[in-house]
Each structure stands twice: as structure tokens, then as C-alpha cells.
From TrEMBL, chain A:
The lineage of its organism: Bacteria, Pseudomonadati, Pseudomonadota, Alphaproteobacteria, Rhodobacterales. The keyword Transmembrane does not apply. It comes from the Bacteria. GO terms for biological process: organic phosphonate metabolic process; organic phosphonate transport. Pfam families: PhnG. Its EC number is 2.7.8.37. Keywords: Transferase. The gene is phnG. InterPro entries: Phosphonate_metab_PhnG (IPR009609). This is Alpha-D-ribose 1-methylphosphonate 5-triphosphate synthase subunit PhnG. GO terms for molecular function: alpha-D-ribose 1-methylphosphonate 5-triphosphate synthase activity. It is an enzyme of class 2 (transferase).
UniProtKB/TrEMBL annotation, chain B:
One of its GO terms (biological process) is organic phosphonate metabolic process. Pfam families: PhnI. It is an enzyme of class 2 (transferase). Its EC number is 2.7.8.37. Keywords: Transferase. One of its GO terms (molecular function) is alpha-D-ribose 1-methylphosphonate 5-triphosphate synthase activity. This is Alpha-D-ribose 1-methylphosphonate 5-triphosphate synthase subunit PhnI.
Length: 147, 362
């Protein structure tokens, strides 16, 4: 279970990562395995669902663009990617990283790609949240009348 | 006899070449990039994504550029592109409770846990033109404050705890999908919401406004309006579990409406719901009002004959691509149709003349 949670974590991170940052970090990785495509990068859509009233039954909200890719690296591990947007290079990099994260190279990849990506994405979220916090209303009550 | 008419290819090519030139405008003025539109015309981009029913800011920005800023034309381009995409699957319903909120306000509870967060809003501006924007100016950095942690629960949860508001029945039933089957009536609420969220903002706004002015009045308060980002999670068959496949900006509006009770329900508040791609609050509020009006049957309310209560009227006229497609086709050549009309009118006139002046005809 622990392993699945961990894998979900990096797959989700890669899916949400800005394409240019992910490919830039991946390009710096020198020790890349040979691989074959099980599924070449393919652009498609996913129908996003919401819940009626936020908590009720599901309804179809609209689609989003997704690119998927599956690879098998020469040591045998299989990597899958479903990433937001229409960037095939991003999907290929994400699938290769998913495969490598299941090998002994995992620590190196985590340091080189996942950690910096996560830091950047977190810091931009934190910056946004701090701006939102500054727009929070502090109410005060005017004292009226004699007592 | 039907005579096929050919021709016009040269004129059409020339028209399209000129369109491209006009799109570019004065070449001494720098050209807009897609990234500039995406970043600086973000609310137009959001509208195109919402009504195009495809979340992809870069594509929406490109469509706006191609359409010369005609948003319905841009929505048309996105709808056309959307149909070319293979469908990889359906996401799990987004969890708006976990939204990273840029904005979150309630018109009903001042001291809601999580607070009133205004976000980057036009509210409270004076709607005076800002001539500073006409000159290139540096924008001062927005102030920041220590962020709060902790949940930002839905406001309606509080009313729910007291049983003062209707509960939303949950179900795991797969909702009908407008993009896979034609819109047929009766439309259940899931189908209505899908239709409303991609419906024309102006039309939905007009319908919502009509309910406020008294046509099927159901006096709405904005219980909560929130704008922010939500992760999208989908089951991936090759993995055997669900993963996040992206993150989208959403606007959610929950209205709290008066309800006197019916034969089966005690007096309680009722709800309308709006959920729309992007920062699109006018649309989300409108959607919630129209959603509520369309629920009259389920609430045991009377049919007042109001337009906003008529699902057929609302749903069949909300889609601006269907509407503009049918509307605009009448400007295309109808020479043969019209020829037959012309002949018919001439004949009717001749007959009428013959009847009013029988002696002249003799």
C-alpha cells in the first residue's frame, strides 16, 4: 500500500508540473535508460466530473486535455504517464521517470527532478495563498449609542 | 428543376486572405502572442474554456487570437477541436471542499470558518477607466499575509447540521453525458447542470435575472462563492488505481433559497448549484439560480409558466454554438429556397388580384 501511495504521489506531481520545467529538469538527467514505447505519446481528453451541490451525485462538467504515454525501459520496468495538457515530450519524460522511480536510480531521479519540481510548485502555491490571505476581511464593529 | 450553382472559390480565398490580414491589424503595432492572451485576457480565456467545454488555457487563447476576439467564434473552434480528441476516461468527481481558494465569500454568514477572502475581485472597484493602464506601467506587488491552514468547509454544511437545508442525495450512478448522446427530455439534474455549465453566459445570466425579477422567484442568497484550484483524479486501468492527472481552476456557487415547505417537506432552505471552469463567477451564480428554478417539480412547487422553469426552453436555447449555427446559416446562399418563395408569392398575388377584380379578369 505504501508503495502505491508513493507512486501515486510522483505520478500526480508529474501530471501537474509545468511542461517546460519538467522537460528542462529531465534534459539534465544524463544517465538515461534505453526504452521502447508500449504506447507512444497520445493527446486526448478526459471528462471532468463534479458533484451536484458539491456533495451529491456526479455530473459531467467538461473535458480537459491530457497526454498519455507508456514505456518499458531496458531493465524491464514499465512506466505510465497521464499528464495535463498537450505536450508529448512532457508525457514521455513523465513515463520514463515513472519507470526509473521503480529502479535503483530512484533516489537520483528524486533529487534531480521530483524534489526541485515539488519545491517550485509548492512555493508558487504558497505565494498565491499568501496573497489570498491578505484579502481576508477583518470585521470590526462600530460602537453606537450611549452604552 | 434544380440547377446546382458552382463558383465563388476565388472570392472565398480572397476573403480568407483578407481576414488573415485584418486579424493581424496594423503591422506597425506589435503582434499579440498566445501567451499574452492567456495571461492578460484570462477571463476571456476562462469563458472560452467553460463554454467550449474544454479546459486548456493555451488552446482557448489561440482560439481567441484566431477568432479576432469574437468569443463565440473562439468557443466554436474549441468545440470543433474537442470532437477530435479520443476520450481517455471520466474523472472522479472533483472535491471542491479541498479547493485551494483564491476567493471565498459568503453573503449569508459573516463569521464563516475560513473567513471571507475577497481574492482578485472587481467588486468594490469604482468602475472608472484607469488611464494608467494605457501607458506601460509596472504593477505594484500585491500584499501578502501569513496563510491560515485548516479546512475551509462548505457554508451549507452548517445549515445542514441543523437540518435547515435540504440534503443533496448522493449516488454513484454514472451521469448522462451530453457529448455522447443527444439532449433528450426529460433531462435529469445532472444533464441540466452539464448543459448549464457550458451554456452561453449571457443567456444563463438573462434567465437567472428573470427569476430575480419575479418570474419563478425563489429569492436566492449566495451562500457561498469560491474560486480556486482543484486536483483532478482519474482511475487509470493500466495502473489499477486512481492518480491525479492535473489541476484546474473552478468557480463554485451555492445558493440558499427560501422555501416554505410542501406537502412532503417541512419548511427549510433549498439549494441551487453552479460549477464552472475558470474564474467565471457571474456565470456560476447565474447557473445556480437557473438550476434552482429548474428544480420546481422535485420541490413540489407550482409551475408558474416562467421561462426559467421550462427545461425545454432553457436547455434547448442555452448553447450558443447551436444557436449561432442555426442563426447564422440563414445568411448563406438560399437562392433556390427563396426562388420558390418568390414564385409562390407572385402566384398568390395574382390569385388575390383575380379575386378582387373579377370583372377585369373577364
Amino acid at each position: 500500500m505504501h508503495k502505491i501511495e508513493e507512486r501515486k504521489g510522483w505520478i500526480g506531481l508529474l501530471a501537474k508540473a509545468p511542461a517546460d520545467r519538467l522537460t528542462a529538469l529531465w534534459d539534465k538527467v544524463t544517465d538515461r535508460p534505453g526504452f521502447t514505447f508500449l504506447r507512444a505519446p497520445e493527446i486526448g481528453g478526459a471528462m471532468v466530473r463534479g458533484r451536484m451541490g458539491g456533495t451529491g451525485g456526479a455530473f459531467n462538467l467538461g473535458e480537459m486535455t491530457v497526454t498519455r504515454c507508456s514505456v518499458q525501459i531496458d531493465s524491464g520496468e514499465v512506466g505510465h504517464a497521464y499528464v495535463q495538457g498537450r505536450d508529448k515530450a512532457k508525457a514521455e519524460a513523465a513515463a520514463l521517470i515513472d519507470a526509473l522511480m521503480q529502479t535503483k536510480a530512484a533516489d537520483g531521479i528524486r533529487e534531480a527532478v521530483l524534489v526541485p519540481l515539488e519545491l517550485e510548485m509548492t512555493s508558487s502555491k504558497v505565494a498565491r495563498a499568501a496573497k489570498a490571505a491578505a484579502t481576508k476581511v477583518d470585521f470590526f464593529t462600530m460602537v453606537r449609542g450611549e452604552d | 428543376m434544380y440547377v446546382a450553382v458552382k463558383g465563388g472559390e476565388k472570392a472565398i480565398d480572397a476573403a480568407h486572405a483578407w481576414l488573415a490580414e485584418e486579424r493581424r491589424g496594423d503591422v506597425t503595432v506589435p503582434e499579440l502572442s498566445v501567451a499574452q492572451i492567456r495571461e492578460q485576457m484570462a477571463l476571456a480565456v476562462n469563458r472560452v474554456m467553460a463554454e467550449g467545454s474544454l479546459y486548456d488555457p493555451d488552446l482557448a487563447a489561440l482560439a481567441i487570437k484566431q477568432a479576432r476576439g469574437d468569443l463565440i467564434e473562439a468557443i466554436f473552434l474549441i468545440r470543433a477541436y474537442r470532437t477530435t480528441l479520443p476520450r481517455f476516461g471520466y474523472s472522479n468527481p472533483v472535491d471542491t471542499e479541498k479547493m485551494a481558494c483564491d476567493r471565498r465569500i459568503s453573503a449569508t454568514f459573516k463569521d464563516a470558518p475560513g473567513g471571507q477572502v475577497l481574492g482578485p475581485t472587481f467588486d468594490y472597484t469604482h468602475r472608472l477607466l484607469d488611464f494608467k493602464l494605457a501607458a506601460d506601467g509596472e504593477v505594484p506587488e500585491a500584499p501578502t499575509r501569513e496563510t491560515q491552514t485548516g479546512p475551509v468547509p462548505h457554508i451549507t454544511d452548517f445549515l445542514n447540521q441543523e437540518g435547515l437545508i435540504q440534503t443533496e442525495p448522493t449516488s454513484d450512478e454514472a451521469p448522462r453525458d451530453l457529448t455522447r448522446e443527444p439532449l433528450e427530455l426529460p433531462a435529469d439534474r445532472a444533464l441540466r447542470l452539464q448543459s448549464l455549465t457550458r451554456g452561453d453566459e449571457g443567456f444563463i445570466l438573462g434567465m437567472a435575472y428573470s427569476t430575480q425579477r419575479g418570474y419563478a422567484r425563489n429569492h436566492a442568497f449566495v451562500g457561498e462563492l469560491r474560486i480556486g484550484t482543484c486536483a483532478v483524479e482519474m482511475d487509470i486501468p493500466e495502473l489499477g488505481f486512481a492518480v491525479e492527472i492535473g489541476e484546474i481552476e473552478l468557480t463554485e456557487c451555492e445558493t440558499v433559497n427560501q422555501f416554505a415547505g410542501s406537502k412532503t417537506e417541512p419548511p427549510q432552505f433549498t439549494r441551487g448549484y453552479g460549477l464552472v471552469f475558470g474564474q467565471t463567477e457571474r456565470k456560476a451564480i447565474s447557473m445556480a439560480l437557473v438550476d434552482r428554478a429548474l428544480r420546481w417539480q422535485e420541490m413540489g412547487e407550482d409551475n408558474l409558466g416562467a421561462a426559467a422553469q421550462d427545461a425545454e426552453f432553457v436547455l434547448y436555447h442555452a448553447d450558443n454554438i447551436q444557436a449561432t449555427g442555426f442563426l447564422e446559416h440563414i445568411k448563406l446562399p438560399h437562392y433556390v429556397d427563396f426562388q420558390s418563395e418568390l414564385e409562390l408569392v407572385r402566384k398568390m398575388r395574382a390569385d388575390a388580384q383575380a379575386q378582387t377584380m373579377p370583372e377585369a379578369a373577364e
